[in-house]
Amino acid sequence: MIAQDDFQRIHNGITINLQKIGSNVNDIENLVKKIGTAEDSEPLRTRYHKLGNDTKLLIQTTNQAFQQLKNIPVHTEADINRKRILTDTLPSQYLKLLERFQQTQRLGVQKERESLNRARGASQEGVAIYHNREEEPFDSTFSSQQQTQAIIAVENQVDLQTIHERDQQLRKLE
């Protein structure tokens, strides 16, 4: 009877974890869609990474719970049938969620890398514009104003520290 109570408790815990993992994966998918768009921001990236880490912890906890569930002794034919019925669907649900999570993580890393490369390119363009401006004669005021505005826009868009942090985060994920 104690084994049955343990079995049910662990089974319920796994079911709840699978629901949380599924919810997290949905949220991560929505966040990944926004990476590299006008909606992209540092808080969005922070939430994306936090959800990814939280989901990894849930996956580890769920793996441990599956091991516990597997190791619970069953003594009667009824208990064996009950255990089989309760455990038939969980592993397949779990594997589908793991696949979705991994695909989403890969897509997120790819989009972050693309965003980082765009930011690096914009940063290099801004430096080139700045250097070209110094070499031009000062009689082209309109062109200088445009270049200054372009430099300011690039500087506002690209924070080298943020780029460095993103690069480090990507390397951690790889």
UniProtKB/TrEMBL annotation:
Gene3D superfamilies membership: 1.20.58.70
Domain annotation Syntaxin N-terminal: ranges: 12-149
InterPro entries tied to this protein: SNARE (IPR010989), Syntaxin_N (IPR006011)
Superkingdom of this protein's organism: Eukaryota
Cellular component terms (Gene Ontology): membrane
Pfam families given in the database record: Syntaxin_2
GO biological process: vesicle-mediated transport
Protein name according to UniProt: Syntaxin N-terminal domain-containing protein
Native source species: Didymodactylos carnosus
